[in-house]
Amino acid sequence: MSGGQCIRHLGGVMLVLVRCIVVMAAIVFIQNVSARADDYPNRAVTLIVPWAPAGAVDTVARIIAPKMSERLGKAVVIENRGGAGSTLGTAISAKAAPDGYTLGMPGSGSMAVGPAMYKQLPYDPTKDFAPMALIGRVPFVLVVNAALPVKTVPELIAYAKANKIFYASGGPGSPHHIYAEMFKGMTGIEMTHVPYKGSADAIKDVVAGHVQMMFSDSVPSIPLIQSGAIRALGVTTLARWSTAPEIPPLNEAGVPGFDAAGWFMVSGPAGTPQPIVERLHNDLKAIMGLADVQQAVNRTGVVPVVSPPLAELPKFIATEKERWGKVVAQAGLAGTQ
Asked: What is the DSSP letter of 218?
């Protein structure tokens, strides 16, 4: 055998060896993933809520976490990581190990509005997550301080045109923020934004009169509306709010065409093994279909959702991102954070 033939022969042997190593590595990887999925979970699961305690998402998380624990056989521990309109906690869950032991509850603020408002985010809503189940939709309610001399939306608009108005939110890019900016744009009034770390803190200052109004999620606002500490002028959805059907939709109350609702889901980081994603999807879908869970969630003012199939969730995120990106741009808020 000539020298050239030897080299070609050795090269062929090396190529075969490399291919064998690649195949073996792939087999080991698949076996490891399968073993992790079969053994899942063997310890507690952390559920990161990207909002401060006592808001709508946090409250619903505390309703479903015990049910998840029952089905998984391990504790589901809630960790509140609020800030930056929920993008902070969402980023933490996106960068976690993709093993099913750290999940997040991102929503419309961090996945659809934030990408348009923030110049740079440490995650991509369409690439860095393994969405598992849509959990709920959140109608918001326009509330004002009880001492403010307005009882209707037209009266608020007239008041805002003659006086300086401050509105609170759960942070830049949060639904509280973007809905207020939509309201500004659709009514032609001016208001000054005062951001907080979450809706529970924000609404306290509405009650105290430090800010005059906000678009609030249901959980912190319901008892305050019922007690008279704040006044509700309208809800953000076209349909009436089942929790308080006496409050008119803004579309009927003086802002034609106003229609918005927040949403949130459970997700893991991209790369989470598909068997784990499928198990959690099925578990969460079953949990959200339970009568007692639906009743408990409805009492918070959140609309419970029995999730669409896994294949539809990435499309849902992409569609919502495009929709709210246009709203942010029209409001002049693109890249302002």
From this structure: H
pLDDT digits (tens, 9 = 90+) for 236-291: 999 888 888 999 999 999 999 999 999 999 999 999 999 999 999 999 999 999 99
Distance CA 214, CA 59 (A): 20
The CATH code of the domain at 141-253 is: 3.40.190.10
Residue 308 contacts residue 320 (beta carbons within 8 Å) = no
Contact 17, 49 (CB under 8 A): no
CA distances from 163 to 55, 143, 166, 216 (A): 30, 17, 10, 22
Angle between helices 274-288 and 3-39 (to 10 degrees): 20
Q: How many Cβ atoms from other residues are within 10 Å of residue 251's Cβ?
A: 17
Q: Which two tokens stand for residue 249?
A: 């939709």
Instruction: Report the CATH architecture of 43-137+262-330.
Output: 3-Layer(aba) Sandwich (3.40)
pLDDT tens digits, one per residue of 289-313: 999 999 999 988 899 999 999 999 9
The token pair at 293 is 């869970």
Place of tokens 């976490």: 65
Q: CA dihedral in degrees (100, 102, 107, 112; nearest 10)?
A: -80
Q: How far apart are CA 159 and CA 26, in angstroms?
A: 67
Rounded to two decimals, the pTM is: 0.78
CA atoms within 13 A on the CB side of 70: 9
